[in-house]
Design brief:
This protein has about 350 residues and is mainly α. The protein contains 15 helices and no strands. α8 runs antiparallel to α11 and α11 runs antiparallel to α12.
Length: about 350
């Protein structure tokens, strides 16, 4: 069966109205500098919310964190429950103001509220980044490690997270060594002493939660070492492996960089090399760890810079976060076995 279709010529010709629209010049609305500082009383509620948000952002930029916090709070009170995106943005901004004011417990409380409202991995990434900052200020390195392990589970190709994880493991290592030394039961070996270098900020061992944090970290390893010495060796190995993973990722994306970004890439790799040198890792061990930490890195699987990681928009129901034990099993267990064989 055949069908004959006929179209009027007018279908393919522009209407007079459309041609006329081309002759009309569009003038974008321009806001005067600091327009948000003007009196907005009696204005549309949406305009009031927007003005308060801009005022708070400006105060934050000016480092007036108390004023910014109060303005964010005023803005939050006016936001309807349906505007979930802006509510989360304002709450995170409140938390970051509190961090700058040294009110870390209050900031952590807000992050816990945000965590309860997480419904996709993009939200989860934002909250985990916030909690990394808070736990760092609190000196809770185990909390930092926990958050970074989750971030890496979401974004395993991000070298920045691997570097932060390496630094956190190293801080736990140093804290455990200082703790044992203060008890008179451990003396640093030459290799361990190399790990304690000037690039790492001093650990505040006077913090009331430090001992508890370290004990939790040691007892968390279900099938791991039976002594504190073995725990320190594992922390040392995890730090080395995380540095090497970061270096591998930086090497993979180096060809995509140019100008100052390329320069930053090189400087970061140099920094990692310096850390590995100070740790005193042998070339044989370095090669072994490099081979293991690059097993999943096929060139065609590395996302190009600027490309969105698919996990950032997944619903939480479609992504299962591994436990701390599962994370270590995936990334470090094979290295542990191979290093013990090569000893």
């Amino acid at each position: 069966m055949e069908f004959d279709f006929f179209f009027e010529d007018s279908v393919f010709s522009e209407s007079r109205d459309r041609r006329a629209e081309r002759d009309v010049h569009y003038t974008a609305k321009q806001c005067p500098p600091q327009w948000f500082s003007e009196d907005v009383s009696g204005a549309d509620p949406t305009d009031v919310q927007t003005a308060l948000k801009f005022r708070a952002d400006w105060s934050y930029r000016q480092k007036n964190f108390l004023k910014a916090f109060n303005e964010y709070s005023s803005c939050y009170k006016l936001l309807p429950a349906s505007n979930n995106a802006m509510r989360r943005d304002v709450q995170e901004s409140q938390a970051r103001c509190l961090i700058h004011m040294g009110r870390y417990t209050e900031a952590l409380e807000i992050s816990d509220i945000l965590m309860k409202g997480v419904n996709n991995t993009d939200h989860l990434t934002g909250v985990l980044n916030l909690q990394v900052t808070i736990h760092n200020h609190l000196g809770n390195f185990q909390g930092v490690v926990s958050c970074l392990q989750q971030l890496i589970s979401l974004h395993s190709y991000n070298p920045h997270y691997w570097i932060l994880l390496a630094e956190s493991y190293k801080k736990l290592y140093i804290a455990s060594s200082c703790r044992s030394a203060s008890l008179g039961c451990h003396e640093l070996s030459v290799g361990e002493a190399l790990c304690v270098n000037s690039s790492v900020s001093a650990v505040d061992t006077s913090h009331p939660g430090d001992d508890t944090v370290m004990e939790r970290h040691f007892h968390e390893i279900e099938t791991g070492p039976s002594t504190s010495e073995d725990c320190r060796k594992q922390l040392w190995m995890w730090s080395c492996a995380s540095y090497i993973r970061a270096r591998i990722l930086l090497q993979f994306i180096k060809s995509q960089h140019a100008s100052f970004v390329l320069d930053h890439n090189r400087k970061t790799q140099d920094y990692i090399e310096e850390q590995l040198h100070q740790i005193g890792l042998t070339e044989e061990s370095k090669t072994l760890i490099t081979n293991v930490m690059s097993e999943d890195l096929l060139a065609d699987r590395i996302p190009e810079e600027g490309q969105t990681d698919a996990k950032t928009t997944q619903t939480l129901s479609s992504f299962v976060m591994p436990t701390a034990a599962e994370f270590k099993e995936k990334w470090f267990q094979k290295i542990r076995v191979l290093l013990s064989i090569h000893k």
